[in-house]
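Input/output pair, single chain:
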Amino acid sequence: MIVFGTIIDEGASVSIISSTSLKALGLPLLLPEKQKLSGFNKGTSRPLGILPKLLITLRKKTIHLNMMVVQGPLDYNLLLGCDYIYSMEAIVSTFFRVMCFPREGRLVQLVDQLSFPGSNAAMNQESSLNGLFASAMSLQPSFHPPNYRK
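Output:
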């Protein structure tokens, strides 16, 4: 399954999936959640529940992540927060639009080619962050950026 509108947000303490995207997964069972979500504008909302242990794969690195489910549709279908970044052991630079994480003893680097068109850094990368920030990730229930090569 392809999910459009996936973003990585270093300021989000939890990862979020919209109820619209959840329905496309076939309505898996949710765990109850009593904690309210707070936005930067101090507004709160109650999540519908937690989708436990969703498998997320990026560049052949797979993690399990609990996703908060919120009423959708939203401007995005999937928001990957600090819990995702920590689980991936990733370093994210919003200034340079780069994400790096270890996999099998090597460092994987993803560069946003939209921010650096034609640059050596962007041209030398196999994958790009614009797939993570603006385009599609597949949910099967694992994710792959659109330029993913097996």
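DSSP finds four helices and twelve strands in the chain. The chain has a mean pLDDT of 75.
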